[in-house]
Amino acid sequence: MENTSKQSIVANNVILQSEDLYKYILETSVYPRELEPLKELRNATANHPTAFFGTAPNAGQLIAMILKILNAKKTIEVGVFTGYSLLLSALTIPNDGKITAIDVNRLAYEIGLPFIKKAGVEHKIDFIESQALPVLDKLLEDPEEEGSFDFAFVDADKGNYWNYHERLIKLVKIGGVIIFDNTLWGGFVALPEDVVPVYKREWRQSTILFNKKISEDPRIEISHASIGDGITICRRVC
Ligand code: SAH
Ligand code: CA
User: What is the dihedral of CA 20, 26, 28, 33, to 10 degrees?
Assistant: First the structure.
């Protein structure tokens, strides 16, 4: 068969993604509906040395859908970068909604901030420049914050995902949703370590351990979706 590396493959009734299929999804279903401020922020980030940090727009579309279905109003964002997923959430939740957004890097956030301001949604965002764990711990000191969040999106240091989960499971209400990004780690979770670039090995290992633990956690229901770099959608059940 010609050009197999670019073709999607069907295995056991599952379509494995290809570049062509990703492009098709973006062009058919995502870009025509992507809101203008998000497009602008994405384009302004495109030449950044770590532009690949930005949430995949098709995963973003799914996240926005989940926020809408949940009627989410109060959310947490761990790992902002220039703010693609943050702006997406801010545009999706109601006008009196609130997002606690945490990142160690304010400079990256400031690249996206003009687009957030222009979109008129800055008032929904409380950006905190900090390591995420102490902020989550501080929130938990206030009993009123416990179980008060509808949704959390986690997209920061993969070595801390389980620590974030242990805090967020208490901050998010029963029926609320936590989404973890990059849980397929470029597909390397399913490959032997010797084919993985050395610099990617540590967080591959963290991700493999996290995926195993989360699959055994009875406090949540999960869907491990092969979209973007893999997202794990967790719904708190108790
Ligand atoms: N969701 C973003 C991408 C986040 S990239 C988007 O859609 O564009 C990961 C971010 O996590 C980086 O900006 C990095 O500064 C931040 N980060 C890494 N370790 C962190 C930590 N311990 N606490 C808070 N933020 C952290
Ligand atoms: Ca990510």
Answer: 180
Tell me the residue length of the chain: 238
Tell me how far apart the alpha carbons of residues 179 and 197 are, in angstroms, rounded to a whole number.
26
How many A from CA of 94 to the centre of ligand 1?
A: 24
Element containing residue 164 per DSSP (H, E): helix 161-171
Q: CB neighbours (10 Å) of residue 166? A: 13
Whole-structure pTM value: 0.96
Nearest CA to ligand 1 atom 19: 157
Q: Are 38 and 45 in contact (CB under 8 A)?
A: no
Residues in contact with 194: Cβ distance below 8 Å, sequence separation at least 6, in sequence order: none
Q: Cβ distance 94 to 150 under 8 Å? A: no
Taking domain 36-236, whether its CATH number is 2.60.370.10 is answered by: no
Residue-wise pLDDT for 103-144, tens only, equals 999 999 999 999 999 999 999 999 999 999 999 999 999 999
- Please give the structure tokens belonging to residue 102: 């945490």
Q: Identify which of 71, 78, 46, 59 has the alpha carbon closest to the alpha carbon of residue 163.
A: 78
Ligand 1 pocket member 108 (CB < 6 A): yes
Q: How far is the CA of 173 from the centre of ligand 1 (A)?
A: 24
